[in-house]
Design brief:
mainly alpha
Length: about 230
């Protein structure tokens, strides 16, 4: 009986430790997200990524993948691309490969290299073609939207993006969705719809860098929409 109680106690403590580590892991990812995507502080993000909690909780490959966005925000594109090429040669888990493809798509779109972005997207599709998981399908669809809006520039998702924006509740995702719809109508040469949707996007992107970008597009030169990727 004593051995049984001891085994049960060890199992309980192990489960508690794992739960605590998972909580700390999620908390660290949240703090990193706050630093980069809300405070726009890539230096603090990179410092946090090399802090003791991050080194303990996040493996080296994941940290390298996460660093890409911060390096792009710092405009250190050369180092970001070097890290992506290094990661291509490493043995990554399925989730890490998916995340890397997403980073590559964003990187090449922001570098105005549509062909390379499409190549990364095709790799993503090939990697996920046997998976029917809703979360994976959602990632693929989101990347497909980005490719059509910014690389193929064919306006395919124009109407669907408007419908999607109307369903969203949070302001920033809603505003970005309206913006992408506006870009799509721009490529369809429908300037009236484009301007209307950019104005709508601006309402949901108050006090962000996106609001200033949209203001420049609307009041200076509509063609700037080709250089403002969100």
């Amino acid at each position: 009986m004593n051995r049984l109680i001891l085994c049960m106690l060890i199992g309980t403590l192990s489960a508690a430790c794992l739960a605590a580590l998972h909580f700390l892991y999620r908390q660290t990812l949240y703090q990193l997200s706050e630093l980069l995507y809300k405070k726009h502080d890539p230096d603090a993000f990179l410092a946090k990524l090399e802090s003791y909690p991050a080194l303990l909780l996040i493996n080296k490959k994941k940290r390298k993948i996460l660093s890409i966005d911060a390096l792009m925000l710092k405009n250190n594109r050369k180092k970001a691309e070097m890290i992506m090429k290094e990661l291509e040669q490493e043995a990554l888990s399925f989730s890490q490969r998916i995340l890397l493809f997403q980073k590559q798509i964003a990187f090449y779109l922001e570098s105005y290299e549509g062909t390379k972005a499409i190549e990364a997207y095709l790799k993503l599709k090939e990697e996920t073609e046997e998976f029917a998981d809703d979360s994976i399908l959602q990632i693929v669809e989101e990347c497909d939207i980005l490719i059509h809006v910014y690389a193929r520039k064919d306006g395919l998702y124009a109407e669907k993006l408007v419908q999607k924006a109307e369903r969203l509740q949070e302001s920033i995702p809603k505003g970005i969705c309206y913006y992408r719809a506006g870009v799509s109508y721009y490529h369809l040469q429908d300037e009236n719809h484009c301007r209307m949707l950019l104005e709508r996007a601006q309402q949901f992107l108050k006090n962000t860098i996106f609001e200033k970008n949209i203001d420049q597009i609307l009041n200076q030169d509509l063609q700037l929409i080709e250089k403002r990727i969100m």
